[in-house]
């Protein structure tokens, strides 16, 4: 049903083929197997929804989950890989202050 809705006029009726490349990619050349785990995702989301109904239990699970993450961070992981596996040292990079106008990013306000 999800793929059918994405491939139809359900989300954007003015351009029925807007999402056709996405649907074709998922159905005919899904090299990353995005749809392979979809049913598992749906089943897990049902479990999450059920668990969320008990707010006390949900809060307890959330706190335990955060506490068990320990010192994990992507920065630490990259630093350890750099030192222990790749044997490279960090370097300084001077960056200009971000300016949206010069970054070439423009907001799209009206899709036709």
- Which structural class do you get from the secondary structure elements? mainly alpha
Indicate the proportion of strand residues.
under 5%
Instruction: Provide mean pLDDT, rounded.
Output: 87
Sheet with the most strands, sense and barrel status: none
Order of helices and strands: HHHHHH
According to DSSP, the number of beta strands is 0
Report the helical percentage. Answer: 40-55%
Question: How are the SSEs placed, and which strands pair?
Answer:
Blueprint: H1 2-7, H2 20-28, H3 38-52, H4 55-68, H5 74-84, H6 100-103
Describe the structure in your own words.
By secondary structure, this protein is mainly alpha-helical. The chain has helices at 2-7, 20-28, 38-52, 55-68, 74-84, 100-103. The chain has 2 domains: 1-36, no CATH class; 40-89, no CATH class. It is built from 6 helices and no strands. The longest helix has 15 residues, at 38-52. The chain is extended. The two termini are 25 Å apart. The mean pLDDT is 87.
In short:
The chain is mainly alpha-helical. The chain has six helices and no strands.
Features:
112 residues, 6 helices, extended
